[in-house]
């Protein structure tokens, strides 16, 4: 069985200060530092993901495995799954994260039947329970992989075959059961193939109704077993499908309203998916708050030049500072966190590359959080924003938005006015942001 020698490290990452040049220790992430009344660790709530870190073999569309991890080689699948768990929990210790996350298919092998797969998942769940009890790490969220197996090539909840729909229900029920057993704080629905490749064979209305029913049953079951965390949907516009029904925050908001799910279902947002939808990460986060749907974040990044999920480790301090600024305005995470849905590059084949990537990205997030705190404390962005909309804060204008005036009344007022445009001050605000990051 694999143990600590896989990484060749004994000492866990620690805060070493800005003067440190050691890539295995933090320069900015001081987990006990207080930021706006909370410890930095409690603000950021980092989670290491199981799939990219321990299941992705280092392939791409033009080439196969490059990592050659020992638990990915031939042998008894359950023995390999336990070996993988040993290495995973060693990484959790080395990077000192408070949480992890998993897909069912990535932690345990598929059985010959659905029940066989469930038995394997429960066995690994028992192992996780033991390892979690012996460490500090907790479960941020679990999910079911309803996209990799060929049975899901036409979707899971939106599949034209009701037998596939039923199989997916069994898989999700089992994944939520294990998540609940491990005291997971959220459950994620990741609809990798809930969309279409061609409209020639697609009934969108029918498929949306199927997806709405699937989620409604999941919410009902969540309440039945007493799972208190939210169900999280992760918006993604395309890839591998041409169009996916959870395209972006706005699309999911409309969907959840239609099927009366806004109370129990929130969003798990990702920068890479925002880019694919033609948005910024900041846009998706701000809109999620505006719609009352903010839940959690996958903290990775995409490449602006590539049209697919590159899932690189997040390193852009300015981009993250804007996101954290919005979060701090609203009090930060409740059950959510920063999940490293990120993978090292396929040329980064040394085991320690995985540790270094996490440490570097955690440091970048810490720098961004501190910049956001300074901006919020100084009112750097909030002051100009409040001033821009100040006219709406008068009693007379609030009455318009409160519904106390008719169109005729407001139009009559408009006839006596000659409003003049005012500068949006975009360049000034961009220069202001640069002072903090």
TrEMBL record:
Mg(2+) 1 binds at residues 234, 270, 298, 341. Mg(2+) 2 binds at residues 270, 273, 309, 311. The active site is at residues 103, 106. GO terms for cellular component: cytoplasm. GO terms for molecular function: magnesium ion binding; xylose isomerase activity. SUPFAM superfamilies: Xylose isomerase-like. Binds 2 magnesium ions per subunit. PROSITE patterns: XYLOSE_ISOMERASE. Belongs to the xylose isomerase family. HAMAP family: Xylose_isom_A. Homotetramer. This is Xylose isomerase. It comes from Aureimonas pseudogalii. The lineage of its organism: Bacteria, Pseudomonadati, Pseudomonadota, Alphaproteobacteria, Hyphomicrobiales.
């Amino acid at each position: 069985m694999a143990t600590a020698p896989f990484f060749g490290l004994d000492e866990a990452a620690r805060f070493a200060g800005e003067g440190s040049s050691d890539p295995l220790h933090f320069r900015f992430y001081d987990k006990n530092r207080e930021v706006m009344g909370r410890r930095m660790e409690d603000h950021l709530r980092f989670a290491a993901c199981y799939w990219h870190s321990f299941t992705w073999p280092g392939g791409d569309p033009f080439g196969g495995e490059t990592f050659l991890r020992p638990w990915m080689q031939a042998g008894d699948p359950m023995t390999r799954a336990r070996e993988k768990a040993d290495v995973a929990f060693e990484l959790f210790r080395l990077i000192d994260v408070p949480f992890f996350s998993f897909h069912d298919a990535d932690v345990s092998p598929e059985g010959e039947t659905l029940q066989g797969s469930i038995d394997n998942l429960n066995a690994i769940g028992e192992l996780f329970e033991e390892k979690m009890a012996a460490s500090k790490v907790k479960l941020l969220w679990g999910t079911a992989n309803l996209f990799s197996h060929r049975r899901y090539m036409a979707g899971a909840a939106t599949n034209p075959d009701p037998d596939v729909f039923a199989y997916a229900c069994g898989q999700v029920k089992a994944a939520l059961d294990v998540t609940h057993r491990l005291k997971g704080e959220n459950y994620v629905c990741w609809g990798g193939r809930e969309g279409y490749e061609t409209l020639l064979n697609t009934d969108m209305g029918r498929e949306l109704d199927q997806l709405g029913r699937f989620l409604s049953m999941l919410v009902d079951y969540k309440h039945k077993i007493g799972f208190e965390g939210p169900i999280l949907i992760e918006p993604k516009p395309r890839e591998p499908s041409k169009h996916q029904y959870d395209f972006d925050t706005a699309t999911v908001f409309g969907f959840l309203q239609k099927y009366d799910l806004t109370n129990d279902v929130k969003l798990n947002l990702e920068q890479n998916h925002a880019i694919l939808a033609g948005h910024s990460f900041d846009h998706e986060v701000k809109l999620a708050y505006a719609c009352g749907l903010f839940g959690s974040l996958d903290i990775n990044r995409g490449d602006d030049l590539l049209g697919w999920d590159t899932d690189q480790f997040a390193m852009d301090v300015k981009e993250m500072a804007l996101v954290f600024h919005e979060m701090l305005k609203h009090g930060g995470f409740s059950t959510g966190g920063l999940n490293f849905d990120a993978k090292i590059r396929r040329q980064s084949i040394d085991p320690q590359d995985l540790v270094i990537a996490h440490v570097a990205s955690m440091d970048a997030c810490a720098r961004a959080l501190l910049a956001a705190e300074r901006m919020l404390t100084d009112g750097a962005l909030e002051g100009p924003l409040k001033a821009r909309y100040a006219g709406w804060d008068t009693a007379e204008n609030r009455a318009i938005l409160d519904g106390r005036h008719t169109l005729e009344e407001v139009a009559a007022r408009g006839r006596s006015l000659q409003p003049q445009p005012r500068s949006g001050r975009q360049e000034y605000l961009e220069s202001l942001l640069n002072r903090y990051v």
